[in-house]
Design goal:
Blueprint lengths: L1 H19 L2 H13 L2 E2 L5 H9 L3 E3 L5 E4 L1 H11 L11 H21 L2 H34 L8 H23 L3 H6 L8 H54 L35 H22 L9 H30 L5 E2 H7 L1 H6 L2 H14 L2 H5 L2 E3 L4 E2 L8 E2 L2 E2 L4 E3 L2
Antiparallel strand pairs: 1-3, 2-3, 4-9, 5-9, 6-8, 7-8
Helix pairs in contact: 5-6, 6-9, 7-9, 11-14
C-alpha cells in the first residue's frame, strides 16, 4: 500500500514538472526572468494561474504583473552566474541546535524500532547538514566572484571601497559564527555504539566541509584586505588628481599664446638656429660631401651584386631545401603530438607512454632524441585548452629530483625519464 502511495506521489510530482516546464511555460518563465516581470494580457491568465499555484511565479505589487518566485530566481542566478550574492541568512547556532535535537530523536527512534521516524529524522539531518555547507559554499563562491571582479557590480571607487568593507565585516562575522561551533560536540553525535554508516557519512561530510570553508573564508578576508588597500590608494590618487585639476582650472598661471600668425616671436623660443633648406647639395660643405659619397658607393655595390650571374651551387638553394626539410620535420613532430593526444582522449582509462610511442615510430626516432621529444610533448600539453588538460591527466613515472641539469627533460629540479598520459 505504501509503495502504491509513493508511486502516485512521484507521478504527481512528475506531472507538476511536465506541466510547469512545458515549452510555452518555459518561454514565459524565461521572459519573466530576463524582463523582471510578465504581464497578464488576458490570453495567458490560465498559464499564470497554474504557474502561481505551482510556486514558480508570484504576483507583484502592480496589478496584472507577475514575477519569478524567489527560490527559482536564485537557482537561475546561480546557474547563470548573475548577481551572485554572498550574504546568507543562515543562523548557524540555531541550525546546530536543531541538528542536535534531530540526531537525538533519530537515535531514540532507532533504538525503539520506529523505522518511519528513523527515515524522517535522517532526512532532516541530511537536509540541515547539507543546507549549512551549501549556504556557506555559495557564500564563499559569491565572495570570490566579488573579489575577482573587484566588486564590479558598482562603478565608483567609493562604492567599491564601501562594498569591500561590508564584505570584510560579513566574512569576519561568519568566521566568528563558525568559531562558535565546537567540533567536539559534532563528534559526540557519533559517540554511541553501532552508529549507522549513513549518519556517520553525513556528519563526516559536514566536518570536512566546515574545515574547508574555514580555510577559504580566511583566504578571502586576506585577499579583500589587500584589495581594500589598493582601492584606497587608487581613491587617494584620484582625489589628488581631481584637486589638482580644479586648482589649475581656478588658478591659470600661464597659457601658451598662438605665435603662428605673428611676425615677431619672443626670443625665448628662438634659441635654435633655423634649418637651412636648399634644392640641391651644397658641394662646399665637407660633411655633406662625405655623406653623399658613402651613399653613392653603397648604391654601386648593390647594383653590381644584382647584375652578377647567379651560381646555383653557391646561391643557397641547398640551404633552402635543408630549411624546408627541417620545417617538415618540425610539422611531423607536432602532428605526432596531436596524434598521441587524440589516442589518449579516444581511449578512456588506458595509459599511454610517450617514451613507448617515440620508440615505436622510426621516423620520429630519426628526427630527434628522446629528451627533445619529451620536452616538446610536455610543452604541447600545456598549450592545450584548459578543458582538454582537465580530462587528460599527465604523470611522470620513475621521476627523480636533481640539482644538476641532465640530458633529458627538466621541469624545475625534476628529472623525467618518461611521460604518461591518461584520460581518467
Amino acid at each position: 500500500m505504501s509503495q502504491l502511495k509513493s508511486a502516485s506521489e512521484v507521478e504527481k510530482i512528475a506531472q507538476i514538472i511536465r506541466t510547469s516546464f512545458a515549452k510555452t511555460n518555459s518561454s514565459m518563465l524565461a521572459q519573466a526572468y530576463f524582463d523582471g516581470s510578465i504581464i497578464d494580457n488576458g490570453e495567458n491568465s490560465a498559464l499564470l494561474e497554474m504557474l502561481t499555484k505551482n510556486g514558480l511565479i508570484r504576483p507583484s505589487e502592480e496589478d496584472g504583473t507577475y514575477m519569478l518566485a524567489i527560490n527559482l530566481k536564485r537557482i537561475l542566478d546561480k546557474l547563470l552566474l548573475r548577481h551572485a550574492s554572498y550574504r546568507k541568512r543562515t543562523d548557524i547556532a540555531k541550525v546546530m541546535q536543531h541538528i542536535d535535537g534531530d540526531i537525538k530523536s533519530y537515535k531514540r527512534a532507532l533504538l525503539t524500532g520506529q523505522h518511519n521516524e528513523v527515515s524522517f529524522y535522517l532526512s532532516q539531518v541530511d537536509e540541515e547538514l547539507y543546507g549549512i555547507v551549501y549556504e556557506l559554499e555559495d557564500s564563499v563562491s559569491g565572495l570570490f566572484a566579488a573579489i575577482t571582479s573587484k566588486f564590479g557590480f558598482v562603478d565608483s571607487l567609493e562604492s567599491k571601497i564601501h562594498e569591500n568593507e561590508k564584505a570584510i565585516a560579513y566574512t569576519e562575522g561568519l568566521l566568528n559564527a563558525l568559531a562558535d561551533i565546537n567540533l567536539n560536540d559534532v563528534y559526540s553525535w557519533l559517540d554511541w555504539d553501532d552508529v549507522p554508516a549513513e549518519l556517520s557519512r553525513k556528519v563526516t561530510f559536514f566536518i570536512d566541509g566546515y574545515r574547508r570553508i574555514n580555510r577559504q573564508l580566511e583566504g578571502a578576508v586576506h585577499r579583500m584586505r589587500q584589495l581594500l588597500m589598493t582601492l584606497r590608494k587608487q581613491n587617494e590618487q584620484v582625489a589628488r588628481l581631481k584637486a589638482m585639476s580644479k586648482f589649475l582650472k581656478d588658478n591659470p598661471i600661464w597659457e601658451l599664446d598662438d605665435y603662428a600668425e605673428r611676425e615677431q616671436v619672443p626670443a625665448i623660443f628662438n634659441r635654435v638656429a633655423p634649418l637651412q633648406l636648399s634644392a640641391s647639395v651644397d658641394i662646399s660643405n665637407q660633411v655633406q660631401q662625405e655623406e653623399l659619397t658613402d651613399i653613392y658607393n653603397s648604391l654601386r655595390k648593390e647594383s653590381k651584386s644584382d647584375t652578377e650571374t647567379v651560381d646555383l651551387r653557391s646561391s643557397g638553394r641547398i640551404d633552402d631545401l635543408q630549411q624546408k626539410a627541417r620545417q617538415l620535420e618540425a610539422d611531423y613532430v607536432l602532428s605526432q603530438c596531436e596524434a598521441l593526444f587524440t589516442q589518449v582522449l579516444s581511449n578512456k582509462g588506458d595509459p599511454f607512454s610517450a617514451l613507448h610511442y617515440w620508440q615505436q615510430d622510426n621516423q620520429l626516432t630519426d628526427i630527434l632524441p628522446k629528451h627533445l621529444w619529451l620536452s616538446i610533448l610536455y610543452n604541447e600539453y600545456y598549450k592545450c585548452a584548459p578543458a582538454v588538460r582537465k580530462v587528460m591527466a599527465i604523470d611522470f613515472p620513475d621521476a627523480s629530483t636533481t640539482e644538476l641539469p641532465g640530458s633529458i627533460l627538466i621541469s624545475g629540479n625534476l628529472r623525467v625519464s618518461d611521460i604518461k598520459l591518461q584520460r581518467p
